[in-house]
Specification:
16 helices; two-stranded antiparallel ribbon; 496 residues
């Protein structure tokens, strides 16, 4: 959800002061990073789960405001649309059995959101994009009426000076138009947080950029949007296009998108990404605190860097640096690409694979970067989102000529021992990590992810039903199977 905003009317002076304060935040962060042992500490994991509220007929149900009563668990928060909710997991130490804890919290969170929406005729679906969404569900009235979202929608629309255009070519093609950012609210994800020491951040970030395509391919769970079969992870294209604030006027060059994969390999510290965000993007939500962060640092305190955090929250890079003043100040790597669903166990296994592979590759990155230009990593990301387990990715080798094109399933299986090594490095019990990674192995060997299962069932149901009927029938089966809790690779399907 991001930081709370309590007003919508902003002036040119607000933008000027905010831009000035962003520079002060960068200066304060640079000073903090010069301090010995700043940001060091035990590795910890966190996550945020987004879900869609649905009615008994599998249709989106816009009742988040009604469900969010004062007695509701504080970890449940609204999202950009009135038919979405977010559950924020409590952080957990990496050492021991963190994934058992994460799985339990995901299960509990879904149950709590079910209970909150039930009095209003609803339940929740953990699925990347609700396949039963229709164009009429995505009008202006679907946006959650909070200052943050109202201001976000208004500002992005003003910067673009035109409607938001969606053009996604997959198995089928979708063309759609919206005057607001409401289409972005169709996406739901599982966002991971990994605490990383500043001196290890660059290597860890680079590793995440390289292995995220593997995790995206095996976890794909968003094949349908507005009735069309598009990408395995349609969220990736939809998110980028639905908040694209860049002007449509013809120019010789275009500014960077606010939903980027990135701009290059990180070389030194997390300060690089924050500085890029400040230099490349105009502020959208210029809400200033009354605190000069430089004064806080000079007084021996750790500042919140509120303005920088607010600005960073409006640049939706798929892997993103987060600064947190808690625990003496620390940095987290936010991994934003994984979809919501299907089951808590599947989501936990996806998390274990991505986190383990990221950590396992961190110490290997320096030696392979010369043979892996950044644009190839970016290519891999979008290729994995589109083709899923059918993707051919460019992968580095230690021999000329690098990289070489290889099947993503082959790469996933090859990287399971590296993921195991990474989880061992942060102290995860080997029995737990093996259990999680075995789910990924079985899913890969069977050639199944959520998108493939959804597509196979819709094709089967379409032999005797319309597309809309098939999507609803598939969703009902999906909901039943997720409630049973058995991992995706055990779900019945005749043909993938």
């Amino acid at each position: 959800m991001g930081q709370k905003i309590d007003r919508e009317n902003l002036t040119d002076e607000d933008y000027r002061l905010f831009s000035e304060r962003l520079q002060h935040c960068l200066q304060a962060m640079e000073t903090l990073l010069q301090k010995k042992d700043f940001g060091q500490g035990e590795c910890s994991l966190g996550a945020e789960l987004e879900v869609t509220i649905i009615d008994a007929n599998g249709r989106p149900l816009p009742v988040s405001h009604e469900a969010l009563g004062p007695e509701l668990d504080h970890r449940i928060q609204p999202e950009v649309t009135r038919f979405s909710l977010e559950f924020n997991l409590d952080p957990v130490a990496a050492r021991g059995a963190p994934f058992a804890n994460i799985q339990q919290q995901l299960t509990s969170g879904i149950s709590l959101m079910d209970q909150a929406t039930a009095p209003h005729g609803g339940s929740v679906a953990a699925i990347g994009i609700l396949p039963t969404l229709r164009r009429e569900d995505l009008g202006d009235e679907a946006i959650t009426n909070l200052p943050r979202y109202n201001l976000l929608a208004k500002t992005l629309r003003r910067k673009r000076q035109a409607s938001f255009q969606i053009n996604i070519n997959g198995e089928e093609q979708l063309l759609a138009t919206s005057n607001t950012v409401v289409l972005e609210g169709s996406n739901t994800s599982l966002q991971l947080h990994l605490r990383v020491a500043p001196d290890k951040f660059a290597a860890t970030f680079n590793a995440a950029q390289m292995v995220t395509p593997l995790a995206l391919a095996i976890s794909g769970n968003s094949p349908y949007f507005l009735g069309c079969r598009l990408w395995d992870e349609t969220r990736i294209a939809l998110f980028k296009q639905s908040v694209d604030s860049r002007s449509t006027a013809p120019v010789a060059w275009r500014r960077a998108a606010r939903v980027p994969f990135g701009y290059g390999w990180m070389r030194n510290s997390p300060l690089e990404q924050f500085a890029e965000s400040v230099m490349l993007f105009e502020p959208i939500l210029p809400i200033c605190s009354g605190v000069d962060p430089r004064d806080e640092v000079a007084a021996g305190r750790v500042p919140a860097l509120s303005e920088l955090a607010m600005h960073q929250s409006t640049i939706w890079q798929w892997n993103r640096a987060i600064f947190d003043p808690a625990l003496g100040g620390h940095f987290r790597l936010e991994l934003r690409a994984l979809p919501s669903g299907p089951t808590p166990l599947d989501m936990t296994a996806n998390s274990a694979f991505l986190l383990g592979a990221t950590i396992g590759w961190a110490n290997r990155m320096q030696s392979i970067l010369p043979g892996m230009p950044f644009q190839y990593a970016e290519y891999n990301f979008y290729r994995a989102a589109q083709a899923g387990l059918d993707a051919q990715l460019l992968w580095p080798t230690r021999k000329p000529v690098s990289p070489r094109e290889r099947p993503v399933t082959e790469l996933i299986l090859e990287n399971l021992p590296i993921a195991q090594e990474g989880l061992d490095m942060i102290g995860v019990d080997s029995s737990e990590s093996r259990r999680m990674l075995d789910i990924i192995r079985q899913r890969c060997e069977r050639g199944i992810n959520g998108a493939r299962w959804q597509s196979a069932r819709v094709r089967q149901l379409e032999t005797d039903a319309s597309r809309d009927e098939a999507l609803l029938g598939m969703l009902r089966e999906y909901q039943q199977l997720t409630r049973e809790g058995k991992p995706l690779h055990t779900w019945p399907v005749d043909q993938v």
